[in-house]
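FORM 7B: Structural annotation worksheet

SECTION A. Query
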Amino acid sequence: MTEVSRARSTEKIDRRRNPRLVKPFGKERIRKEKLNPNYVSGFVDGEGSFSVSVGEHKTLKRGLEVRPEFEIELRADDREILERIVVTIGTGRIYDCSYDRYGWYPHVKYKITNRKDMLTFLFPFLDKYPLQAKKAKSYKLFRQIVLMTCNKEHLNDRGFEKIVLLRQKLRELGKKSKTFGNR
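SECTION B. Predicted structure
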């Protein structure tokens, strides 16, 4: 192997040189000052998103998995605010999103997908500093679904059907908040 080909093969593996291979990071790598918790709660009211997806899973008896997710997505030039939100809430990860193919600015996304982190950090935070706008209803439905999955209620037919109904209500609330001018 020549010196040039060896250098090229190392470049492909070296994560520091290829930003697409850099792992997402959370509070352990962020050294920022916390925000006022009421500000964060208001920010979640405006920019946060609670969603629950149901997708295929090969090893589960039902063949379907319930996946709750909380996220905030902003333009990449607002990354610092998401870093400070991670530190304030105490958990989550920030991901870089590229929308080059659409001609958009790069974005960053703050996500919490781990149910244990939701129970330990997100829910106590939002219960102590409650949402004030329409998103409070979405949060209550989302919280109920996550608690049901933590209690393994999604594993029986009755619980799974209830989760699907709650998820539908959550989606309808999301659609209403995206339609402007409708009363």
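SECTION C. Observations
The chain has a mean pLDDT of 82. The chain has one domain: 19-178.

SECTION D. Sign-off
Analyst initials: ____
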